[in-house]
Give the backbone structure.
Amino acid sequence: MMDSQETREFAAQHSASVSKHHGTQSQLRHAPPLETLLPVESQVLANRTGALRSPDSTNLVLAQDTLSLSMPHVVSYVPLLQKLSHILVTAAEPEVILQKITQTLGQAFEADCYLAVCPNSQFLPHSIYWWQAAEDIVVYQPQARLAKHPALKTILGSSSTELCNISDLAAIPCETGAKNQWDGPSVRALLGSTTQFHGQQNGVIGLVRSQAHHWTATEMANLNGVLPQVAIAISQFYTQHQIQQQNCRQALIEQLTVAVRNALELNQILKLATEGAAQALQVDRSLLLMLKYSDPMVKSRSLERSLRVKASVVCEWLNPTPNSHNQSPGLAPVLNEGFWIPECALSQQAFSDPSKLVVVTNGYESYLTAPPEAVASVFAPETFPALVMVPLESQGTILGFLVLQHSQPRNWEPEELKLLELVGAQVSTAIIQSQTLRQVQALVEERTAQLKRSLEVQAKLYERTRKQIDQLRQLNQLKDEFLSTMSHELLTPLTSMTLAIRMLRQAELSPERQNKYLDILEQQCNQETNLINDLLALQKLESNQASVYLQKVDFKSLIGELVESFEERLASKGLTLTTDLPKRSLILQTDYDSLNRILVELLTNAGKYAEPNSIIHLVVAHPSESSNNQIVLTLCNTGPGIAEEELPYIFDKFRRGQGVTQRAVQGTGLGLALVKCLVQHLNGAIAVASHPLPATDSCETCFTLTLPHTFNSANP
């Protein structure tokens, strides 16, 4: 134990320290005389040595009633100051300082100790530390239910700057209802005070006992003496807290700025703003509502227009570890829920005047003239009495609301409201940017689709034009070939006829020579006449003006006559014509002239394009299983064949295969065209196929003719 001299020196140093922190000794709020700050043991020792004098003189004396007090516990003041000073010097974190100070004071006074941070003389505590003597633990909860503790409410509710000394709280009438709101351990005795730093209240410290207790003058003096150290610790804590909050808020604004600049997904930005704002302000819940207008052109904020506006919750954040005792752990999520603006008085107020934030500190009754039932259920007004609603606006149009809620009454600081305005501005920018980008993308996609369709149409038109050009080229080539062929076919007989006429005009011609030239003249005249007749017949067939003269025709006899007439002509080229006919007779009801012309043209074409010394096969079949009772004739020859790309056009007028002109093959290109028209005229069908023969350069070309056994005039 220190002697009296050491005790007085330490007390003098303490007084100087207090004066240094508070400027003047008067700021100690009626600090007790120094002798009341000394431990009882030191005062007794000083009395024995005669070192203390009367308070009126320069010496100190010990009050006689102090020695006569019967106290179960005496606080050693000097060691307590040493411990508090050591904590302030050695502890690194402000939170640890407050925690240790709370524990040290509670242990020193053997009572529950409360230490609350109340910056800027706020009635609502910012943070609370509670040392429970029975369990020897320190509980920390920011704005927790401990704010309803009768001790804190009593101390904060007192307008006096003196120590709050209550021996039995139960004996005092409860006018504020604080006792009814507390469901924790019972509180009977209370000793506490507010702390002052630079003339401003910054906290509360209180000692509580569960039984009635008479607080001694020494206990009151010692608690009053440690208030400066506690005030310094609270100031350090709140300053550090403000720095952390400022850094957190600055980081949030920077994150939102980067997110908007990088054009992130709107949902990511909204989630970042909702969660970030709630965590930066340490609230229990945050919502982000988007408005949908029935008429997108409406920008008026009148009540009539608001009837067509619906709000929907697009983002929700709920504190996973709520500090509120009142907050229901089973609070249902409200994501995607919605309501019409006129159904909620709170939203209607924010909608009608977006220039002002809707700020509710403790219950909605003080803010709205309407009953609490007029607030939309998504806001859960019974659970969250504190609220800030930030309108999200752009060029006079309200886009939505950013809502922050807390489960305890809360004084919203101007810096917090300024932060929310900045966050709201960033969110509004992100929404407009997203909507603009979405509209631009939709317009680009629409224009791209239109351009794609236009290009497709142009491509089709180009392809059609190209085909038409190719067809025109082919037609022009066919025209040239036709003119060349027709010139040859017309001029050759005329030349022969002219030459024969000239020869006949010679007087000295013998009768034999005259007859020869007359035969040539007749032959060439017939050839010219046949060509003209073919053109006229083809024109009639194509215009469906040709008549059908039906009669019974013996198909086998007709083929036999034609084979006999062609044998001599084919033999001159070394060709052999073989036939394969059914044994029974084949009687057709058809047009004889048309059928005869078809067979003549096919046999002529086969002999014309067959290789010398090859065989031409003619096969006639009458399938018994054919339900249509048809006759099928197949005529095959071996020769240069028909190119695959020319097969679809082989029956066109004036169309001749490649190389026929170079090989000097006579013809006009009308034979097969006439054949196809005649076959269709008889309700038949004709097809051609050409296949290369293995190990040779030749091809086998086959024409297949299908004719009905009986002509049906109903068919086209």
